[in-house]
């Protein structure tokens, strides 16, 4: 019973941590979207002002944004898998606590 309570507490803490992490990821994703829009605006203006001099830098920034978004997605997937594992452990612990029929 104590193991079940411990698992429940750990699961609740993990869910809370994951929710905070997901919120932070969502904020980062929003920032990335804004940065990409700003980058496109900057790219347009820079082409007007200085030709193609900034193109490689813009492409590097776009590549970084894509890599960051992919990393965020991987982290979210890993956290979701861990929650599923803990939930399964909790279900198993509860099942193990059920008394055998007489």
TrEMBL record:
Residues 69-96 form a coiled coil. The keyword Coiled coil applies. This is Uncharacterized protein. The lineage of its organism: Eukaryota, Sar, Alveolata, Dinophyceae, Gonyaulacales. Keywords: Coiled coil. It comes from Alexandrium andersonii.
